[in-house]
Every structure is written in structure tokens, then in C-alpha cells.
Design brief:
Pfam family, one (chain B): ABC_tran
Radius of gyration of chain B: 18 Å
Protein name (chain B): ABC transporter ATP-binding protein
Largest interface: A-B, 32 and 55 residues
Number of domains of chain A: 1
Largest sheet of chain A: 2 strands, antiparallel
InterPro entries (chain B): AAA+_ATPase (IPR003593), ABC_AA/LPS_Transport (IPR051120), ABC_transporter-like_ATP-bd (IPR003439), ABC_transptr_urea_ATP-bd_UrtD (IPR017781), BCA_ABC_TP_C (IPR032823), P-loop_NTPase (IPR027417)
Number of helices of chain A: 16
Distance between the termini of chain A: 41 Å
Order of helices and strands of chain A: HHHHHHHEEEHHHHEHHHHH
GO molecular function, one term (chain B): ATP hydrolysis activity
Mean pLDDT of chain B: 90
Radius of gyration of chain A: 23 Å
Oligomer: heterodimer
Keywords (chain B): ATP-binding, Nucleotide-binding, Transport
Strand order of the largest sheet of chain B: 6-7-8-3-9-10
Order of helices and strands of chain B: EEEHEEHEHHHHEHEHEEHH
């Protein structure tokens, strides 16, 4: 069984790689390809949500925070690299409130700090927050509300600190990405390939986590936390791992979103985008590996396509979609696939006899 | 093997003493039945021993004091329990349920890898509880009795030294009860077992010793015959049967 699984997974990854690396770049225009890069970044967030929510039952309604931390970390580095050594980024000079670079900007000038920070900073925040929250046994709706509040707080903070964060405008107008000119379509294509590769990598990590003993334990915690505790585990730690992993994935997604799309601002990381991440995952099928990815890409694509046609209607459509999926298809579109598959083969007639535990002879002995 | 020693245990909910100064000694290897009318404090006693509710007094298992420790620490000290309604992980298979139960001491690296083989203790437990043929079935698809056995199997692979079973045969057929009782005997060969039960036939067949609780206090204690002969017990609970 294990061998068949890994064989199928190998084929799946190969097909995914061919689609992303060979078919998409040929079939899509530069504009559409850069849109796809954006969708794939959102899909990375979805992979993490699938792990934390689908497998771990943690309704992470505030992934925008981690997406934003990763995105701003990358954007700060790119701004500083554009400005050149010792210079302030253009928007700081424009607002003219500062004489020198704030201390917390400075380390981001080094790629050796900024790049790891895009992943580690969100993970650290998730670790601190998760340690507090899970140990106090905050769960369910309370956890979701808390995540939302955090996303709102982060947006308020960013907007309030306009002089150092770019405020509502966020950070944008990047020229280069590690020395490559971002206006050049060839380099944009390179960014797309990096995004696609990282997404496949994150899928591989998520798959390993889901199939590992940890993945089984995570499902056990989701379904019966108390029982797991009586087996000698601390469920808080189990949840913390999934939460931190999801935060790292969201951070990496945010970091790649910046060169792929060219902007990061509070509107991209607040409550609404945080909910949109979750909608994509719910539509695709939260407990599966690929469901969240396909759902996130489909919803993001539909958003672009439909808001080109009917700008006002998209919000309602999105809400309707979410309600319909939650009400009638709690397993998401992935459960449709399973339903079809289950209907096809005849049920295997393995009669199961109730097994007496010990024979009566042993009882008398 | 260790025994359980409870001294002056008190559990108070909003001024109501659910367990009101219980003293209890369960010898190593004993099968002790806790009986008593509804509300006598049987389940609350087990909750206190396993760390689920706060209590005062003392609960010692072997050399270790259990009171005041978190649930998962007590579990790691070799104290395991089941619940009135069987709680297994319904979406996981029988094998996965047992494997998780066997793994509380696993390190991070083992956890992050896939299960390549079935641990010996899990294989043995599958045989003992008679579910070897159902190992790949989701636990949610098991019959009620089988879920209870799976729970007991999880305690076995968890390698607990003290099993606290809360009404393990409720809702079981006669054959299933006998099989469960036999399982308890096998299990108690090198473990201490405490069973909360309402089923008097089951108690007569399989109890070594019995403690009768009433209104949070110990009413009577002894062998099945002694307890049944106790007029106080007859009055509050057993009736003359």
C-alpha cells in the first residue's frame, strides 16, 4: 500500500511539474503567467492552512499576519537594495519625517538576514502566540476570533506607522530582485519558476507531515484532544507544530508574492484577505493535500476573471460560494472526487466476524 | 508492579463534595471493582486520579504522587483510563489508533517519519484484543464492543501499569461481556486494574475485590461475598439478589 502511494505521488508531482514548468509558460501570456505566479503564492498559504485547519482543526483566520510578515520582510530588503547602501528608501525620503533609517529596518539590508527572516519571523511569532494560546486551551471559534483580531491589529499598526511602513500604500515600486531587473519579462518568468518550484517543495513537505506519524497524531488531536492527553501527549505541542509550519509557509508565500506581484500593503494582509485564504481552502477541500492548492488557485482565478466582468458582484459570489460549500460539501470539491470514486468499485465483501477476545477455556484456566 | 493508594481524597464542585474523603488501597495486580449508585462519585474519583479534575488529599501510585500533575504527565507515569462512551479516533484505522497510543515517548524524528513497520507491542495488542483482522478499518466503523476493546488495547500498548476502566461492558452482549472479563484477567497478570461498573453479574464473575461508594464516601470494601453480605450495602444499593 505504501509503495503504491509513493508511486502515485511521484506521478502526481511529475504531472504537476510538467504543468507548471512546461505547459503554463508556453500556453500563457506574460501577463497571465504573472497572474498565475500570484495565485500560486496564495496557494502556498493554502497548503499551510490545509495542514493546520484541515488536519489539525485550527481555524486559522489570520494567516494574513504571517503572509504580511514574510512579505514586508522581503519588501524591506528589496527597497533597501533599490536605494543602495546607506540610503533611505524612496518613500521615507518622500514623507520626510526621518533623518535616518529606523533601527529595525537596518538588518534587512543584508539578504542573509532578510531571506531567512521571511520564514523564521512568522514562525517565531506563531510559536510565541501558539505557546500562549494552546497551553491555555483556547480553541474553536475563540482561536479563530483571536487570529482575526491579530490580523486587524497588524493592519492598524502598519497604517499608523506610515513614515516607516509606507502606511496604506504599503511598499511598492520595486526595481530589482537580487540584482535582476524586475521590469524584464525574462526575470519575471524566473520569479514565476521560483514560485512554482517552492510551491511543489511546500507540497512535498506538507505531504510528508500528513503521512508521518505526526500527521496521524495531528488528526487524533483534531478529533479528540482530551483522549490524546490521556495517552501521555501534550496536545498543545502537537498543534503548535502545525501552526508554526503553516505560518512559515504563509511567510514564504508573502516573500515571493512581493517580487511576483510587485507590492505588499495592508489591504493584502488584513481580515478580508485572511478570510479569502480560508475560503479557497474550504472550497478545494481542507483535509486533502491538493484540495487547498486547487481551491486557492480556482478562487483567486475566479476573482480576477469575474471582477473583470462584474466588479461589484464578486464579493457576493464569493460569499455564496463559501456558504454553499460549507453547507452542502463540507469536505470541499475534493470530496466530490472521493464520492465518484467510491461509487464506482463494488463494495468488497469482507464479512467481519466479531472477534471474541479470549476463548472461554482461557477464562476458566 | 505498583498499587494505588488514595488518602482522604476530596473533590468539591461549587461547594458540593462529589468525593468526600475517600481512602482506598488497591493492591498490585488486583482487579478492583468500584460500584455505587449514580452520583456516588465513582467517575469523579477516576477523574481526580487521572488529573482531569482538581482534588485535595493524596493519590499515590507506586512511589509517585499523582495529584497536582497535568493529565499527560500522569498518563506517562503509567496510569491509563477509558471513558463511559468509547473514545477512539474515528477517522484513523485500528492500527493507527494503537500506534499513536504506543508513541507518547517518541522523539521528533520518529514522529516526522512514516510508520514503516508495526511495533511489536501493537501487534501483540491487536492479537490480545482480537482485532488483528480489522487493523486497517477506520475505528469509527467498529461495533460498540470492539471500540471498547480497542480502547483497552490502546492502554496496553501505552504500557500503563494502572488501568482505570469506566463502565467497560455497558451496552455489550453477554458474549462480549465474557470476552471483556477474560481480557481483564489477562491484562491484570502484570497490571493493576480498577473497574467502575453497574453490571452486577459482570462484577460477581470477574471482581477480585470490591469497593462500594455512596455519596462520595466509601461505604464498604472487601471480597464480592463480603460486600454482598454487608447490610449497609444491601440497604443503599445492591438489594437482596
Amino acid at each position: 500500500m505504501t509503495a503504491r502511494y509513493s508511486w502515485r505521488a511521484g506521478v502526481g508531482f511529475a504531472v504537476g511539474a510538467v504543468l507548471l514548468f512546461a505547459v503554463a509558460p508556453v500556453a500563457l501570456s506574460d501577463f497571465r503567467l504573472s497572474l498565475l505566479a500570484k495565485y500560486l503564492c496564495l496557494a502556498m498559504v493554502a497548503v499551510g492552512i490545509g495542514l493546520a485547519w484541515g488536519r489539525g482543526g485550527l481555524l486559522t483566520l489570520g494567516q494574513g499576519v504571517f503572509f504580511g510578515l514574510g512579505g514586508y520582510a522581503m519588501a524591506m530588503h528589496m527597497k533597501l537594495a533599490d536605494a543602495g547602501p546607506g540610503e533611505m528608501p524612496d518613500f521615507m525620503q518622500l514623507y520626510g519625517q526621518l533623518d535616518a533609517l529606523p533601527w529595525w529596518w537596518r538588518p534587512f539590508a543584508s539578504p542573509w538576514f532578510a531571506l531567512p527572516a521571511t520564514v523564521l519571523l512568522p514562525m517565531l511569532v506563531a510559536f510565541l502566540l501558539g505557546s500562549l494560546v494552546f497551553r491555555r486551551r483556547v480553541r474553536g471559534a475563540y482561536f479563530a476570533i483571536l487570529s482575526q483580531a491579530l490580523a486587524a491589529a497588524m493592519v492598524i499598526l502598519l497604517i499608523g506607522q506610515q513614515g516607516t511602513t509606507g502606511g496604506t500604500n504599503g511598499l511598492t515600486d520595486f526595481q530589482g530582485f537580487f540584482g535582476y531587473d524586475l521590469d524584464d519579462p525574462v526575470n519575471q518568468r524566473m520569479v514565476y519558476f521560483i514560485v512554482a518550484g517552492v510551491l511543489l517543495l511546500l507540497l512535498a513537505i506538507a505531504r510528508q507531515l500528513m503521512l508521518s506519524r505526526y500527521g496521524e497524531l495531528l488528526v487524533a488531536v483534531r478529533d479528540s484532544e482530551e483522549r490524546v492527553r490521556f495517552l501521555g501527549y501534550n496536545p498543545a505541542n502537537v498543534k503548535l507544530v502545525a501552526y508554526v509550519a503553516a505560518a512559515g509557509m504563509a511567510g514564504l508565500a508573502g516573500a515571493l508574492f512581493v517580487p511576483a506581484v510587485g507590492i505588499i500593503n495592508p489591504a493584502l494582509i488584513g481580515i478580508v484577505p485572511s478570510i479569502e485564504f480560508v475560503i479557497g481552502v474550504a472550497v478545494g477541500g481542507r483535509a486533502t493535500l491538493l484540495g487547498p492548492v486547487l481551491g486557492a488557485v480556482a478562487v483567486a482565478w475566479a476573482k480576477t476573471a469575474l471582477s473583470e466582468e462584474f466588479p461589484a458582484a464578486w464579493t457576493y459570489l464569493q460569499g455564496l460560494l463559501f456558504v454553499l460549500v460549507v453547507a452542502f460539501l463540507p469536505g470541499g470539491l475534493a470530496s466530490l472526487v472521493r464520492m465518484v470514486r467510491r461509487r464506482r468499485p463494488p463494495p468488497d465483501p469482507a464479512p467481519v466476524s466479531p472477534a471474541p477476545v479470549v476463548s472461554p477455556q482461557e477464562v476458566r484456566a | 508492579m505498583s498499587g494505588l493508594v488514595v488518602r482522604d481524597l476530596r473533590v468539591v464542585f461549587d461547594g458540593f463534595a462529589a468525593v468526600d474523603g475517600v481512602d482506598l488501597e488497591v493492591a498490585p495486580g488486583d482487579i478492583r471493582f468500584l460500584i455505587g449508585p449514580n452520583g456516588a462519585g465513582k467517575t469523579t474519583l477516576v477523574d481526580a486520579v487521572t488529573g482531569l479534575v482538581k482534588a485535595t488529599g493524596s493519590v499515590r501510585f507506586g512511589d509517585d504522587e499523582l495529584l497536582g500533575r497535568p493529565v499527560h504527565r500522569i498518563a506517562r507515569m503509567g496510569v491509563g483510563r477509558t471513558f463511559q462512551t468509547a473514545t477512539v479516533f474515528e477517522e484513523l484505522t485500528v492500527l493507527q489508533n494503537l500506534d499513536i497510543a504506543a508513541g507518547a515517548g517518541r522523539g521528533a524524528l520518529t514522529l516526522l517519519r512514516r510508520r514503516r513497520s508495526v511495533p511489536v507491542s501493537v501487534e501483540e495488542a491487536l492479537e490480545t484484543i482480537g482485532l488483528a483482522g480489522l487493523r486497517d478499518k477506520p475505528a469509527g466503523a467498529l461495533a460498540h464492543g470492539q471500540k471498547q476493546w480497542l480502547e483497552i488495547g490502546m492502554l496496553l500498548v501505552q504500557d500503563v501499569k494502572l488501568l482505570l476502566l469506566d463502565e467497560p461492558v455497558a451496552g455489550m452482549s453477554h458474549d462480549e461481556r465474557d470476552a471483556t472479563g477474560a481480557l481483564l484477567r489477562v491484562v491484570s497478570a502484570d497490571r493493576t486494574v480498577v473497574v467502575i461498573e453497574h453490571d452486577m453479574d459482570f462484577m460477581r464473575s470477574f471482581a477480585n475485590t470490591v469497593t462500594v461508594l455512596h455519596a462520595g464516601k466509601v461505604l464498604s470494601e472487601g471480597s464480592v461475598a463480603q460486600v454482598q453480605a454487608d447490610p449497609a450495602v444491601q440497604q443503599v444499593y445492591l438489594g437482596v439478589s
